[in-house]
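User: My collaborator and I are trying to settle a disagreement about how two of our proteins should look. Neither of us wants to argue from intuition anymore, so we agreed to look at predicted structures for both before our next call. Could you fold the first one, then the second, and keep them clearly separated?

Assistant: That sounds like a sensible way to settle it. I'll keep them separate. The first protein:
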Amino acid sequence: MAGKTDARCSALARALAEPLPGTAPVGDRLVCVEHLGAWPRTVDEHPDPAVAGLAERARAAGRRLLLIRRPGRRPPSDSPRTVLLADTGPGAVRVGRLVVEGPSELASIPLDDARAGEPVTRPLMLVCTHGTRDLCCAVDGLALARGLAETETDGIWECSHLGGHRFAPTALVLPTGYLYGRLDLAAAIEARKAAGQGEVEHGHCRGRAAWEPAGQVAELAVRAHTGLRDVDALLVARIDGPEVLVIGPDGAAWAVRVEPVPGPERPTSCGGTLERMAPLVATEIRELARVR
């Protein structure tokens, strides 16, 4: 590590063409709570005991807590709040919507019930606008969220920290659990449209949160190699050192070699210390005999 820079982290990562695949946060279960107040830097340490308590319960239940809000004007503080329970694992994707009257009801959210809430049938896009975490999300993420809200009638939310703010604007698509980065308005609309058709838009994709980073890289490499777009077409079956086994339709299989490739220094967030990047990259794809 050496020194710092005043340049925004997303501009530097873009200039260096830092790869997007393999950078999605890992975890396929979420609880998303509409929260109208200020978002602290770390959601898990929220000063509101009701939110902090939910964060603790979420960790115990294997869920990640995200705070969400609708772009634009804020509703009255006493208005009902939306809660989304999302499961994004392959073959079991679902988002359930509940409504609570206020923070006091957060303790009653059934985090262990995979079928809780009214099913959400349209894809949702959650755009990171967590300004207290990073300037790029505050500026680029907010602009994207507001642009989407002007063109899309529903299903657009701002959200707290998704990770990887150097790829801002970043967004999560539910229920598929794919994350995207360096989005512009057209690319974001295409990603959400693809999800509505049960597909993955490969461009700008960081990976599926259900897989470890090497699995994310391998899956996206196979999609680029084959043109497969169906969300559930590919399964990351095994990660064995640098080799990742990906299973496809009708027993098709690929061995993908995934290795870190050292690169130049860049900060991981605005104002951060320079760190040498070593992104995971698919260096070889071999088609295997079909798995029976």
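The second protein, kept apart from the first:
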Amino acid sequence: MKTLITGVAGFLGSHLLRDLLAKGKHVIGIDNLSTGRLAHIEEVRHHPHFHFIHFDVSDPDVLQLDSLLDVSEIYHLASPASPKFYQNDPFATIAVNTIGTKHMLELAKMNHAKLLYASTSEAYGDPVMHPQPEEYRGNVNTWGPRACYDEAKRLGEVLCYEYYQRFGVQVKVARIFNTYSAGLRNDDGRVISNFVNQALTGAAITVYGDGKQTRSFCYVDDNIRALQLMMEKKVATGEIINIGNPQEYEILEVARMVKEMCQSTSEITFHPLPKDDPRVRRPVIEKAKLLLDWKPQIHLEEGLRRTIKAYREQRVERVQS
């Protein structure tokens, strides 16, 4: 049995890869390296149970790759996920979440394989229902800088629905909320990576708006565990499930927490809030508890300790090299 991970050199993909290989799985990874980095998978690049393909899943020739003909599980994680990257290349972001998703669904149909689609909490947009259950249909602006990601992910969900309903493809949709660890690129632009890098270097910690907007942060180990449970469990087939930590924090609170934990002298500065930036974000995870027997185990303070320690070590290694 072979497992395919698209976006394997990205943040989630590389963590999932290492975990699956440690469990003895045979894994094929695809990435076009637009935002993923080979450095993320370098330590397992030559693992005997891993085969890497530099390819774009939006290219229709992906369905002609002989090495994919016997995959039985597909984790479709390919997509820019940081606003910095998806706004820089909106058309590629739309393509990978629509055309690329259709290609992976076709592959799952051909192989009678299970497919997990990595959707996003951005499907809820700037929510008027709080916290957000899977039944909430969202409040998304189609005419703005975030729409290329939000709406493409939503259309990807529609494609999953149609392949499940019409062809019986074993589809599972994970709506992933903010996830973090030291594996995020230093230039990723997301909240935790920004704050930790700024605090460690003494740069100003940049908070957008008044910092009263909220987010819920899930450590990557908890996220990866949930994705594997979704893939394993038959009851998750044909379901959309929120994957995230229901503990909610104000952004300014997180900035102060990171500054204190880093023992940083950085100043906290305030900047204009980006257009369509959600004011609140917190998942209802009762469905994940019921169907997957899953809930996060790593609290933000512990996750931040691990993240800060790893970033510090990376900085020392860069200086020494």
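Some points you might bring to the call about the second protein. The mean pLDDT is 95. DSSP finds nine helices and 13 strands in the chain.
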